[in-house]
Amino acid sequence: MTTNDRLARRRIVTGVLMLPLFFLIALPGLFLGLLHSPAPHEVEVAVIGTGPQAQTVANQLAAHAKGFEVQTLSDADAGRNAVQDREVRAAYDPATGDLYVASAGSVQATEAGRALFAAVAQAGGTALQVRDVVPLPTADRLGTSALYIGIGAIVGGFLSGLIVAMIAPGLRVRTQVSVVAVMSVVVAGIETFYGWVLFDIFPGNAAAGAAVLAGIALVAGVVTLAGTRLIGPAMVMVSILLLVLCGVTASGLPVPLDMAPAFYNWMHDVLPTARGLSALRSVCYFDGEGVGVDLLVMAAWGLAAMVVLAVTRKKVAVPGNGAFGNLGADEAVVAGAAASASA
Question: What is the pTM of this model?
Answer without folding.
Answer: 0.88
